[in-house]
Design goal:
about 140 residues; four-stranded antiparallel β-sheet
């Protein structure tokens, strides 16, 4: 009986993590160029600017492309960001999402993340000219 109790408690603790994407959620991705070239603030980045600046310490962030998709943690989805950039999402189990960022046929990044509603996840640092390309993911 004690073993059954331990199993039930364990399932209760795991269930909320697995339910993070039980219902399809809108996942938004943004392709951003970070550089030290002076430019005005891109107002479209206000939702993620507070995370980018202290983390990456560039002067300027410019939105290059964005897209969104309805995603459930057990499936897969792709978000086209323009200029050949695509972010592929695949359910990784236990609340994790496998993310692959491609430019054409070139894989720029492959990682596993936990996405939290309303909190941006920052990926990247891919060299681009004098700056870096960054992708943000956020569950709305």
């Amino acid at each position: 009986m004690k073993a059954l109790f331990v199993i039930l408690v364990g399932l209760c603790c795991v269930a909320p993590v697995q339910r993070a994407f039980a219902q399809p959620s809108d996942v938004e991705a943004m392709l951003i160029l970070a550089s030290n070239e002076p430019a005005p603030l891109d107002r479209r980045l206000e939702r993620v600017d507070y995370v980018l600046r202290p983390l990456l310490r560039f002067e300027t962030y410019r939105l290059l492309g964005q897209g969104s998709v309805l995603f459930s943690g057990s499936g897969s989805a792709s978000i086209a960001l323009g200029d050949g950039h695509v972010v592929n999402l695949a359910g990784g189990g236990k609340g994790r999402v496998e993310v692959t960022w491609l430019r054409g046929n070139d894989r720029l990044l492959s990682t596993s993340v936990t996405l939290k509603k309303g909190k941006p996840t920052i990926l990247g640092g891919v060299p681009q000219g004098e700056g870096r390309l960054i992708v943000t993911l956020m569950v709305k």
